[in-house]
Amino acid sequence: MDSVEFRKRGKEMVDFIANYMDTIAERRVTAEVDPGYLRNRLPGKPPRTGDKFEDIMNDVERAIMPGITHWQHPNFHAYFPAGNSYPSILGDMLSNAIGCVGFSWAASPACTELETLVLDWIGTQT
């Protein structure tokens, strides 16, 4: 994938995500599948070449989504709050693009210092 296709597919993915979030209330909250359901919906062997993006997205809707518990669904009230938002999705995109592993200051001064700063901010809230 080159940068031209990345831009095209990225815009399609943003549209998919926005549509998912806009229509999530129309989906079942919890999955209605049995253990092992996915083996019957996907090939038994990995593809020898990359699949088309359209085919992958069709597999997401056809095979993956039936097995998803939709934590962002307005009627999902189990476990713990898992608020997701458009700003957090954009932040994840940026974090994944940078691809930095911030497990120590030496590995990533910016990650460590930003984490410390934000925790200090949280600590001052009353």
TrEMBL record:
GO biological process, one term: amino acid metabolic process
Gene Ontology MF terms: carboxy-lyase activity; pyridoxal phosphate binding
InterPro entries linked to this entry: Aromatic_deC, PyrdxlP-dep_de-COase, PyrdxlP-dep_Trfase, PyrdxlP-dep_Trfase_major
Species annotation: Magallana gigas (Pacific oyster)
Similarity comment: family membership: Belongs to the group II decarboxylase family.
Cofactor field: pyridoxal 5'-phosphate
Presence of the UniProt keyword Lyase in the record: yes
Protein name: Aromatic-L-amino-acid decarboxylase
